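Sharing a chain and its predicted structure for anyone who wants a worked example. Both blocks are below, sequence first, tokens second.
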Amino acid sequence: MPVRRLVAVMAAALSLGTLATACSDKPESPGVPTLGGSAGTNASAGAGGNPNAANGDGSAERRTKLHAAAQCIRENGAPNYQDPVLTADGRVYTDEVALRELDEPEREALQTACAELIRAANFGMADQAPPPPAVIRAGVKSAECLRAHGLPNVKDPTASSSFIPGKGFGLNPDELPADGKADPTVQRALTECRSILDEEQRVSSLGNLTNA
């Protein structure tokens, strides 16, 4: 999985001295390893497809199945896992962040315990549908701000960009200075763009994705 720009990890507690998560690599974010699209977490992806992409099934019956699967996930090691968001056209967004608290054996055990319910609901428990337009727009504003404050290589996100609900998009290494997130320019840009990054985080949260 490519490394993405995690702009929205400028959470409320951001300071110049706590930037370990501000520009983290998506495959191995410091302290929170990623799960999205990874092998062993997706019980229903089939032959390379994303089960969370639009499939036309936004029915109440599927919502009930998603709730049952999420309840199983909560009861088997991820108590903070939120119900997936189901849109009218069948897109699914999941609480990927809650699963990052688990180590690999815990995730595998959870996946095994809930495999039947996950398959019945036709979703990947840590995969995401493509970002909706409102999230892309918020990400573009973040990218514009970061470019304006000394990070000219930051690219605008698109519908094919990966994102994490409640966190936003990530940064590729080639978008950062040679020193990466430790570079003072990165720290200043993140601080100057904090309100815009916080808005991207808000728009990309699970609670807002149904209307995004």
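Comments welcome. Residues 104-121 form the longest helix (18 residues).
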